[in-house]
Design brief:
Elements (H helix, E strand, L loop, with lengths): L4 H13 L6 H5 L6 E9 L5 E9 L2 H4 L5 E2 L3 E4 L2 E4 L8 E3 L5 E12 L13 E4 L13 E3 L4 E3 L6 H4 L4 E4 L9 E4 L5 E8 L4 E4 L2 E4 L13 H8 L17 E2 L4 H6 L1
Length: 260
């Protein structure tokens, strides 16, 4: 598949100029932007399921939309638990509040957690050990990707948010005992899902968010990169269609607002 020059240029510019998309490795490296294959399955307006493959930049904005859950993650639906890889758009997913929401979109990609990408970034998985957060929390080990967020506030953030629920990246819980980092040297398939509205779902008794880019994610992104990103979500027409966030998220600016 031929990559448009404008898309490659937009990816390079985003890495080199955006204060949000930069990281120390990106500042040191000036190689050509890495591209990644993303697979998408979405629910069309007429009820059909539309499958597509995309080549897009391997930037955090894109990767975070595809790398939350590992194969075998059991998600509760109206017909019982179903592994994330077997979910289909149109399935009814049971959310934290006990209601069901339509699965509108599922995305997947493959990464090698133990291998740095072209910009020196690693993508380790996190294994949350059985009973790591309390009795049957989780009921058995839960392995998730780097983009997974838990509805749980770690101790070092409680002074900022108090008792308010907070969607927190799983990496914040790594302590080497209840949650450990793991980086297999071979490719791992990862997934994420969008429901009709941003929600919290349960996997192994733990509460994870469904995908939402965040309220600030697209503000620093140029038109070419924004268009490439939105093409990954054929069930929406603009970033506003993701709707409101169900809870505040660590790292998205809400914590600063809450603590002001």
């Amino acid at each position: 598949m031929t990559i448009p020059t404008s898309l490659a240029r937009a990816a390079r510019n985003a890495i080199e100029t955006s204060p949000i998309l930069k990281d120390p490795a990106a500042l040191r490296a000036r190689s050509r932007p890495q591209l990644r294959r993303y697979e998408v399955s979405a629910l069309a307006a007429n009820g059909d399921i539309v499958d597509s493959r995309h080549i897009a930049p391997a930037l955090p904005l894109f990767e975070n939309a595809f790398s939350a859950f590992t194969r075998g993650s059991m998600i509760l639906t109206e017909t019982g638990p179903i592994a994330v890889e077997d979910l289909l758009p149109g399935d009814q997913i049971i959310t934290r509040d006990g209601t069901s929401e339509t699965l509108m979109w599922k995305g997947s990609t493959q990464i090698v957690p133990g291998r740095p990408d072209a910009k020196g970034r690693y993508h380790p998985l996190v294994r949350i050990m059985a009973d790591g957060f309390g009795v049957q929390l989780p009921m058995s080990d839960v392995l998730v990707g780097p983009a997974a967020r838990l509805l749980k506030t770690p101790g070092h953030l409680r002074k900022l948010v108090g008792q308010s629920p907070l969607l927190t990246p799983v990496a914040e819980f790594i302590d080497g005992v209840s949650a450990i980092e793991t980086a297999p040297p071979t490719a791992v398939q990862l997934f994420h899902i969008c429901l009709r509205r941003h929600s919290v779902i349960r996997i192994g008794g733990l509460e994870f968010e469904t995908y939402h880019p965040g309220i600030n994610a697209l503000r620093p992104v140029g038109p070419a990169l924004r268009d490439a990103y939105l093409k990954l979500f054929p069930h929406i027409s603009s970033a506003g269609d993701f709707g409101p966030q169900v809870h505040a998220r660590a790292g998205d600016g809400e914590i600063n607002a809450l603590s002001a």
